[in-house]
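note to self — DONT lose this again. spent like an hour looking for the file last time. sequence + predicted structure for the chain T wanted, 372 res
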Amino acid sequence: MESAQKGPEIAVESVEAAAYTIPTDSTEESDGTLSWDSTTLVVVRASGGGRTGVGYTYAGPSVVTVVTGKLDGIVCGRDATTPAATWAAMLPEVRNLGRPGVVAEAISAVDVALWDLHARLQDLPLTTALGAVHEATPIYGSGGFTSYDDRRLTEQLCGWVEAGIPRVKMKVGRHPDEDPDRVRAARRAIGDDVELYVDANGAWTRKQALEWAYRLADHDVRWLEEPVSSDDLEGLRLLRDRGPGGMDIAAGEYGYHLPYFHHMLAAGAVDCLQADVTRCGGLSALVRVAALCDARSMDLSLHCAPQVSAHAGTAVWHLRHLEYFHDHERIERMAFDGVLAPGPGGVLRPDRSRAGHGLEVKERDLERYRVG
């Protein structure tokens, strides 16, 4: 006689989500193709077994609708100790919603919350639960918006250098006539021993990007991110093949599913791939993106969301670094207790004394920014 099938010993009991729109610390910020005056943080909580895991993404309030109107019905009742299995269960169920974009961001936030819950239930730090191969995640300071004047630009870059971060990135492409002086001022301010990165956010045509790559090389720029649109794989490959030696071409932050990353790598479009754990499908997806890089002995660089990405980075074998983005590191300090600060050598080192990613939501501080 067959025994009745048992349910999970520890089930996910509830999934909740809320959105918070937080103004920038300046009137406006901009890059080569976009301007903004606020950023929306969507926080997801997954509870079960007397614990609550926290996940988040940077997206619009519509993510909340996807989480509470669709994903919660898939996740609740499933085993809280097998987050990757729950991630796999979510993917086919969102087919008619359209997975790239908002839905992928919602899945990402839920998946991060489930991994955090899983780690907390076992009283393990997230870095250990993920299978760390590194003790810490190297970072580079990122901001340098095109809306900044030279004084603010250099103050921000030098602030990261003074904090021990040996790599910094600035934005270009909105005001081409000003960019040579801005890059020159940045290099002069940080000195010759700090790596200087540049991000055009897809602002240039192929020919413009090739010309700018050689102009930037005169200032020892080592990293050129999205010189053309990340959808232009042929253009990225052109820059990779014909650009100056010693300058890596990077893209991938807008990848929402595995085929995107596979196509970019198969096209030979980048020297270093990027992925965002809050967009690509969460931690369960990120480890699979990392495996695509591992198979090619290619580095992966993590995009933004530094507090959860610091843990994710320790589980990436061919890890380059993590973008310590000004807006996100500021918001995460406002939103959470338990945030990690840059350590010697410019790294974020997960706190192994805390279960999960160690973050606790500052409910009262965030409430004033709640939307929807």
